[in-house]
User: Which sequence fits this backbone?
């Protein structure tokens, strides 16, 4: 009878007398993680003895060597340490001698199969305990043979909200989701997004997007304008996504960044003001209505004879270099060409001069440019100021910033992700309204079928009846009143109709009365409606097809959406909260919440706006102009 495992004899065998047995069950992955295992053995010793059997020669005589049945990776790690002279080649290794006539393959298999790997959450917390005990990241990395980045990642994962870690342990979310939540240390924000995702799950990318919305990324224009080095030199810190391949990060102190932007703009504006302009505005970005402002023209001034001679010499030298090198100048030639071009530009700039009287009655705007520099727009006339014949609209001067199209102007005050959620709520609400109006659903379907022939992108409903993925733009949309209403109405209609399947379906449809068919049509068409897209534009400023359907349905978003602290107010700026309260509840209410911390301000604002019927801009109905023939056609079809 084979010896029991706990009865196995323990001996010490020199490392150079140990061999990997053919009976060792592990074949795949023997080399994986050897660096980490070797570092662990060097730091903590061999925590588990090797399982061995005596080796015999062809005549059955003991050779004095031992075959390792259990512990092949440990043996490889020990040999790695010996190669690096961390231990002696003949170092005594503790081993359990297994019965030679026992089931050695079974013993090897049992060691690898029966054991249960440590849960990742336990590993995160163990690393966190070591760090809390005073061990720095580098020391922990050396002890376990991993990179410092790996240690920092595990420490970051350990800092995720305990409630979410508990859900991870319970199998309610995967490791990728935990990694997405670790993009922020804000437990409140983590738990809010987790509550939104419960019930249907959420892709890690969606979790991450919701948690970082509104944060200032390192490629933001303001960061480039100030310079990341200058921001950090002023005491600012950067939050990094430790799990991003490109090292994505965010500004941790937006207030400091804003101050540094203002300080640089003030310095640039001071220099421009010294030129003698009547007014100078320093702005964080060029105003969207810059194209509306009239602009004075600078006057042409003749160059001096010296400048003319210098221009001629520079041009000759430039041509000579190009003739010599062609299209492939070397480094020195390229540098000289750049210097010549810069000097030519500086001289040409002297050909343009502003009259003192024009400077005095016009002004300039200073703002960051698209890179890390500053852009100055000079000779601008404020609205209402008198201008002479030299004043021309901005667009006639060939300005680099022409009038933007209406759809390219992002709305102020709302993060893109939050705006997307509002539009998803609008789509869900319109779906619920159309589901209750079979006559309107029929016309929506007809509109889609007619328009798709030539302009498929203009259809309100997708003819394939594929529902837009509202949950991607708005995690938690399933809990919205509109979604619940649509689900209940659909379930009732389908249950009442008792729709058959297969070859019985068509005869059943032929026998269905028109009223019942329309009821069924409404709940089948409604989920395909997408009122969230803002790419629909109608010439002449008319309502988009989705807006026309909403008007015909009498859609009032006040019945389907409320401004709550968690879903909206707590996710916009304090200025936006104050503006909403001022608009919905009056100036006195806005004054009462001024100065409060953001969370308290959002909660108080929710109380003031409760029942006030206030809606953010994306959810407000837009009046339809009467000038669009297409709008009139759609309205007639919907009546």
Assistant:
């Amino acid at each position: 009878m084979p010896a029991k495992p706990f009865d196995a004899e323990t001996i010490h065998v020199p490392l150079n007398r140990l061999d990997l047995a053919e009976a060792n069950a592990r074949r795949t992955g023997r080399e994986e993680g050897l660096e980490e295992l070797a570092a662990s053995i060097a730091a903590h010793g061999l925590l588990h003895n090797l399982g061995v059997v005596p080796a015999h020669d062809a005549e059955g005589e003991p050779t004095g060597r031992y075959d390792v049945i259990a512990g092949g990776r440990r043996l490889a790690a020990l040999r790695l340490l010996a190669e690096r002279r961390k231990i002696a080649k003949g170092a005594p290794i503790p081993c359990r001698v297994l019965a030679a006539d026992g089931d050695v393959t079974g013993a090897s298999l049992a060691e690898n199969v029966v054991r249960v790997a440590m849960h990742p959450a336990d590993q995160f917390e163990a690393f966190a305990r070591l760090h809390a005990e005073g061990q720095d990241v580098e020391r922990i990395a050396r002890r376990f043979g991993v990179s410092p980045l790996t240690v920092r990642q595990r420490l970051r994962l350990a800092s995720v909200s305990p409630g979410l870690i508990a859900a991870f342990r319970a199998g309610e979310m995967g490791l990728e989701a935990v990694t997405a939540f670790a993009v922020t240390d804000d437990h409140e924000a983590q738990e809010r997004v987790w509550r939104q995702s419960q019930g249907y799950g959420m892709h890690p990318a969606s979790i991450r997007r919701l948690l970082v919305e509104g944060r200032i990324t390192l490629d933001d224009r303001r960061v480039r304008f100030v310079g990341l080095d200058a921001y950090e030199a002023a005491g600012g810190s950067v939050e990094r996504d430790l799990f991003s391949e490109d090292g994505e990060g965010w500004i941790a102190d937006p207030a400091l960044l804003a101050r540094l932007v203002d300080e640089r703009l003030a310095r640039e504006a001071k220099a421009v003001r010294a030129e003698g302009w009547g007014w100078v505005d320093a702005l964080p970005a060029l105003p969207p209505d810059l194209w509306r402002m009239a602009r004075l023209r600078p006057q042409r001034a003749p160059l001096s004879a010296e400048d003319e001679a210098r221009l001629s010499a520079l041009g000759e030298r430039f041509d000579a270099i190009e003739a010599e090198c062609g299209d492939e100048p070397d480094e020195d030639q390229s540098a000289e060409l750049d210097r010549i071009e810069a000097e030519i530009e500086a001289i040409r700039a002297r050909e343009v001069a502003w009259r003192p009287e024009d400077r005095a009655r016009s002004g300039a705007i200073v703002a960051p440019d698209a890179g890390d520099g500053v852009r100055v727009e000079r000779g601008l006339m404020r609205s209402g100021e008198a201008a002479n014949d030299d004043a021309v609209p901005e667009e006639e001067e060939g300005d680099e910033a022409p009038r933007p199209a209406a759809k390219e102007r992002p709305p102020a005050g709302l993060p893109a992700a939050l705006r997307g959620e509002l539009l998803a709520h609008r789509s869900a609400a319109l779906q619920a309204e159309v589901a209750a109006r079979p006559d309107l659903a029929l016309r929506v379907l007809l509109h889609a079928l007619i328009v798709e022939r030539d302009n498929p992108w203009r259809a309100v409903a997708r003819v394939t009846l594929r529902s837009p993925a509202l949950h991607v733009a708005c995690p938690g949309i399933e809990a919205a009143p509109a979604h619940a209403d649509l689900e209940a109405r659909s379930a009732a209609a389908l249950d009442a109709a008792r729709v058959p399947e297969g070859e019985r379906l068509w005869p059943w449809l032929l026998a269905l009365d028109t009223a019942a068919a329309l009821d069924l049509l409404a709940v089948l068409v409604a989920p395909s409606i997408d009122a969230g897209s803002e790419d629909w534009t109608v010439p002449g400023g008319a309502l988009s097809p989705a807006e026309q359907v909403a008007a015909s349905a009498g859609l009032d978003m006040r019945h389907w959406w409320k401004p709550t602290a968690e879903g909206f107010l707590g996710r916009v700026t304090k200025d936006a909260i104050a503006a909403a309260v001022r608009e919905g509840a009056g100036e006195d209410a806005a004054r009462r919440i001024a100065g409060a911390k953001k969370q308290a301000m959002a909660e108080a604002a929710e109380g003031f706006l409760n029942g006030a019927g206030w809606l953010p801009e994306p959810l407000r109905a837009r009046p339809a102009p009467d000038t669009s023939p297409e709008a009139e056609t759609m309205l007639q079809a919907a009546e």
Remarks:
- The domain at 5-113 is CATH 3.90.1530.10 (Conserved hypothetical protein from pyrococcus furiosus pfu- 392566-001, ParB domain).
